[in-house]
Amino acid sequence: MTDCRIVLVHPRDPNNIGAVARAMKNFGFTDLAVVAPHPPVWEEVTAAVKAEDILAGARVVPTLGAAIEDRTFVIGTLDRTRVEEKQTLFTPHDLSHDPLLTTERLALVFGSEKHGLVNEDLSHCHRLMSIPTRHGCPSMNLGQAVAICCYELVREPAQLDLSPRPATLATAGAVDRALTLALETLRRIDFVLPGNEPDLTRRLRSTFMKFGMSHYDVEMLCGILSRINRLK
Question: CA 153, CA 160: separation in Å to the nearest integer?
Fold first, then answer.
């Protein structure tokens, strides 16, 4: 079974958190992380019928980075209206048909009910995914969206791809450490403009994640950047 963590970012409705836990239990998933839930929300979750153990074992963390630090493949969810028409997105169908996902430590990230994942959140993701819905009603209830994705992760794929597997991908935490070193290097050469660092950080992180670097790639990059930063 795919090693998958469901990550909820700033959830606002306790009923939705309970529905997510129940959907996870329906399909055999137990790893739930909740990023900075609104203070009254977490204590009010009551709708997790027969999934109270999922809630009891959930981790509450302050940042998305902390929730995915040990994950090697991170997929962020959003509705199709937020991206350009030409941009390629994952769909839940891909979750059961991409053999890469069976070899990696996966995280599926869902945003708040109010505005979904913001650009800063999306920069932490290797890929973006959207559930194909009608244009007149593009967004879905959080619990329903998680249920669809969990079902696709466990259903039998149409055809097994036995092609050679790529090298193990680096964890999101390792990529962020490389990003820290890269920013240090860019500051040394005065590339970082005043007030521009948050936007530059987001763009660089998004680029690093899209590369899908292996553990070896990140270690080599960190070694190069560390050597550069030691130069006087």
Answer: 14
